[in-house]
Amino acid sequence: MNICLLGATGRVGSVILENALENKLSVKVLVRDQSKLQVTSDGFTVREGNVLNEKDLALTMMGSTVVISALNTDKSTTLSESMPLIIKQMKHHGIKRIITVGTAGILQARSAPHLYRFQSSESKRKSTRDAEEHLKAYLLLKDSGLDWTIICPTYLPLGERVGQYRYEQDFLPENPSSISIYDTGDFTFQQLFSNEFIGARVGLTY
Q1: Domain range spanning residue 78?
Q2: pTM to 2 decimals?
């Protein structure tokens, strides 16, 4: 298994990278600042570049069998602008599987299933900007024809690795609390070895 990992220097992305290297998997990452990754390991390749640059994406994906994206919004449109390029390059390289990290806001609202959580009273966030970015990425993946899975954690503090949590397809489990970056990264990594949630969003919480 050869992984193309995007967002490897982020909070969840760094946990996913740790998992992949511990399991001796081949990993290529694309980062804006190579100095943020002080990692050396067999089968690990770092490319400095930008996810909005198709050439950078193409070179990073070359030889990969799966893409994991832990890109966040960074208060910008990078997430929604990069997704069409990611999908295009995946198809060009014949890569079918993509696992991404989203937000609980793009799950269906339990109290009003016709709405997304960020559109409902279930969401406590005042700003919907990040959720709207994640929604655009989700809708692009939904129509892509790829084997996609989006992990949608609730409130995401640094926290600790607990190893026990609850998850549910397309909804956030009832009475959600929080989920650490470590358990989120671990669960995301585990999807590499499961077909259970292909074509689905997965709500994640303790």
Answers
A1: 2-205
A2: 0.96
